């Protein structure tokens, strides 16, 4: 089975020359959840940006479903990202001027899917995250936990091969974070997407199949929950 994500010998430094990581290798199988932990400033978000094609490594390869991002121009990377990658981030990034249904449908709209299909799929995903009756509402009417549920639905609406999550419960109180994390893991597994989760939370990391710590030498495997 082809890996959903393959990282080989990645190296990245920041301006000034400080090395974030070198010799980084990782493969994610479809349906697998991998958590990455590490100190602040270790380069976890930078690694996610490289995987998403928003940043480039200094050396090494990053391939999504066998497609090496280095061989794509900006437009091709954007198309691949829209079609095969879903995002869930700490700050939600839910658009305030769109209804919840419109927010969730947005990836399908960008992929030029038929309106009826996009609407039906958005309704389905909102129901899956427990917000089935809230489609006409606006983000200002929701709590932080509810907004993150919308972000999860939007990330999965187009059936991505790869799901990227950067501190997805970091802005939530512990009780809400626990509920949202359980929902996130459940929906990620149900979708069959490979999931790369960056987190400071030991609870969130424990929900993964494998856990790694990011260090300058690359990834060091830790114990999963």
CATH class: Alpha Beta
Count of folded domains:
1
Task: Give the CATH H-level superfamily.
Answer: P-loop containing nucleotide triphosphate hydrolases
Helical amount among residues, as a percent range? 25-40%
Order of helices and strands: EEEHEEHEHHHEHEHEE
**Computed Rg:** 17 Å
Low-confidence stretches: none
Question: Taking strands numbered 1, 2, ... along the chain, how are they ordered across the largest sheet?
Answer: 6-7-8-3-9-10
CATH architect. name: 3-Layer(aba) Sandwich
- How is the biggest beta sheet arranged? 6 strands, mixed
Distance between the termini: 25 Å
Determine the mean pLDDT. Answer: 93
Q: What is the percentage of strand-forming residues? A: 25-35%
User: What structural class should be given to the helix and strand makeup?
Assistant: alpha/beta
Q: In total, how many beta strands?
A: 10
Shape: globular
